[in-house]
């Protein structure tokens, strides 16, 4: 194995998914100091040491090697034992974030150009600027993880922890809650082409459950609070999408992207704003 150390500015943490092969996983992505995208997979985020928990908009260093099981060139396999997270500034500095994120990384405004690049270059991560947000949708989905997957994972956990007590195994085998709704944005690109893309961001999943707790488990109120933030508040900001493809649908779907994160700094004057759009 050939590893190299990379310094990464974290922009994306997807909500955890359940895998028969890797158990509970988070897809992580960010940009290097050069502005290039990198995806880290797999990462069992909740099993990392506390000091290794990397928040959004923080720098971390990690040893990585190219993940040859994934044709998408941005995907690397991390050595999680080498993860070191740099202290995140306590004060939110949107000017600095904007410089890091948009300074060396191109911003797409055309869906056609974006999907064309994904087919020609296999590229699977991008920043996209919608011209208009039309709607924010919440749709019901399955409320629980597939039972057969959970059974396999529990069996693997017991096999791998042969010398632990049943109580210790039960404590370790914790499965993240499944969000029972699918969230998505409906929007237009720079020529008015409409699209609807699903949001699979850690932030929106945690926001839903935090709102649900504050609303005494009233889902209607919780969904209203999520909409207030993602539609009412974010559309008043200078909204960008962090987009990523899934390996399974990269070549199948006409638009293979999903929204894996959002960036919502305050607006800049038009003459400054346009300098970032170079794609």
Question: Could you describe the 3D structure shown?
Answer:
This protein is an alpha+beta fold and 279 residues long. It has helices spanning 94-102, 111-121, 147-160, 166-172, 202-214, 219-233, 270-273, and strands at residues 4-13, 17-19, 23-32, 37-43, 59-66, 75-85, 107-108, 125-128, 132-140, 181-188, 194-199, 240-245, 257-263. The chain folds into 2 domains: 4-85, OB fold (Dihydrolipoamide Acetyltransferase, E2P); 106-141 and 177-276, OB fold (Dihydrolipoamide Acetyltransferase, E2P), CATH 2.40.50. The protein is 26% helix and 33% strand. The protein starts with a strand and ends in a 6-residue tail after the last helix. α5 (202-214) packs across α6 (219-233). Strands 1-3-4-6-5 form a 5-stranded mixed beta barrel. Strands 7-8-12-13 form a 4-stranded mixed β-sheet. It has a 3-stranded antiparallel β-sheet with strand order 9-10-11, with helices on one face. The mean pLDDT is 85. It is globular, with a radius of gyration of 19 Å. The relative contact order is 0.16.
Write a concise synopsis of the structure shown.
With 279 residues, the protein is an alpha+beta fold. The protein has seven helices and 13 strands.
Which short descriptors sum up this protein?
5-stranded mixed beta barrel, 279 residues, globular, OB fold (Dihydrolipoamide Acetyltransferase, E2P), 2 domains
Treating each run of at least 4 consecutive H or I residues as one helix, how many helices? 7
CATH topology of the largest domain: OB fold (Dihydrolipoamide Acetyltransferase, E2P)
- Could you tell me the number of beta strands? 13
Q: Largest sheet, if any?
A: 5 strands, mixed, barrel
Helix content: 25-40%
Instruction: Give average pLDDT, whole number.
Output: 85
Strand content: 25-35%
- Strand order within the widest beta sheet: 1-3-4-6-5
Structural domain count: 2
**Low-confidence parts, pLDDT < 50 over ≥5 residues?**
none
- The CATH class assignment of the largest domain is Mainly Beta
Radius of gyration: 19 Å
């Amino acid at each position: 194995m050939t590893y190299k150390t990379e310094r990464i500015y974290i922009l994306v943490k997807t909500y955890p998914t359940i895998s028969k092969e890797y158990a509970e996983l988070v897809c992580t992505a960010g940009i290097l100091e050069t502005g290039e995208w990198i995806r880290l997979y797999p990462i069992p985020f909740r099993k990392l040491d506390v000091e290794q928990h990397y928040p959004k908009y923080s720098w971390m260093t990690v040893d990585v090697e190219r993940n040859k099981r994934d044709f998408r060139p941005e995907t690397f396999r991390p050595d999680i034992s080498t993860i070191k997270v740099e202290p995140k500034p306590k004060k939110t500095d949107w000017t600095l974030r904007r410089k890091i994120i948009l300074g060396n990384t191109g911003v797409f405004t055309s869906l056609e150009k974006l999907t064309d690049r994904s087919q020609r270059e296999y590229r699977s991560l991008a920043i996209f600027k919608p011209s208009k947000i039309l709607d924010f949708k919440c749709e019901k989905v399955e409320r629980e993880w597939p039972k057969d997957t959970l059974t396999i994972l529990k069996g693997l956990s017991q096999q791998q922890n042969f010398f632990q007590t049943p109580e210790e195994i039960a404590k370790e085998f914790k499965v993240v809650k499944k969000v029972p709704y699918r969230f998505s944005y409906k929007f237009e690109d720079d020529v008015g082409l409409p699209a609807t893309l699903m949001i699979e961001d850690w932030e929106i999943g945690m926001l839903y459950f935090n709102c649900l707790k504050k609303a005494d488990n009233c889902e209607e109120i919780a969904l209203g609070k999520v909409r207030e933030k993602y539609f009412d508040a974010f559309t008043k900001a200078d909204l960008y999408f962090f987009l990523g493809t899934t390996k399974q649908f990269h070549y199948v779907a006409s638009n293979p992207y999903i929204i894996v994160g959002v960036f919502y700094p305050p607006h800049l004057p038009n003459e400054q704003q346009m300098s970032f759009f170079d794609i």
